[in-house]
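# step 3/5: fold
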Amino acid sequence: KTLNLCTYKLHALGDYTTTIKMFGTLDSYSTQSVIGKARFICTSWKAFVQQLAHIECQQARIQKIHDSFQVTKDPLEPVPNVPEECYNVRKSQHRPIDLADLIRKNSGDPALQEFTLRLKCHLLPRIRAMHNIPGREDSLPTATVDHLLIRSNHLYQHHILQVNYTTYDVQCGQDIFNPTTDHHDVMMLATPENTNELETIHQCYCCFCYARIIGIYHANIQYIGPGFSSYPPC
């Protein structure tokens, strides 16, 4: 066999030194695909080309399904730690709940009777306070709740509520509540806002009220009533 200078190996001899310096000696690594070898073991060694192609398609489908679950999975967004606020929740909107569907599916639940109206009556004085608009909650006419718009008519569900409070020794304390765990009971001051008419007569005897958290939500609210200065949601 005569010497053939057109052979690629002879032309690549000049790159051997640089390649060895960069990757190490030639016996320390292999260019053989490990994935291909692992797939080859799963074949019957007969007509393995079609079997390898079939295995590759299956693994690609499984990876695609896995990636789709990762996209829809709620990322572990940290709860913002703002000690100046009374409570903190996440700002993610990965668990939207349509308000109309929620009321329709739970039409027999007394807690959801006139839920949207009572929710807006609860939010309106607080948003007015944010905009420094005078007005008492007990003196607000029902028509003023139309000045609140719930963006997309959606509530957004969360699992963690972080509460900032003052301890008995006048220190800043924090507690975390999760309605899906056993840590979901709270104790609050028995203000008129947190009591009903039947409990009013007991306010002078009991200074606290007790509750159980059954859900944590946030909503994007837009105020369009008198005194509003911008359109972004509150």
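# step 4/5: annotate
Residues 87-179+214-223 form one domain.
# step 5/5: archive (pending)
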